[in-house]
Amino acid sequence: MENYDTVTEAVSGLRTKGYNLDFNIEFDKIICRENNYCLNPTEFEITEVHRFEGDTDPGDEEVVYAVASKDGKMKGVFSSAYGMYADSISNEMIQKLSMHR
Question: What does pTM read for this prediction?
Fold first, then answer.
């Protein structure tokens, strides 16, 4: 797995690997607004995780996830803040993401 210095580099690098869709995390699923499709935690795998820590600003702490649907039809990325800036998500989604942090 490649190491990236910034979130932008990570997203760009993952795009070159075929992770072309943009997902957003919702409470209990991830959603691709490009094709109006959502994936529950049981329907996707996290294939790469890249964590970035802000040296001076805790608001810069972010994780970039590369995800692929289990049926192999979709690959994309989503990012999420962690710590006090993290979004509210379901226990099932917390478990899914925590396995890869």
Answer: 0.82
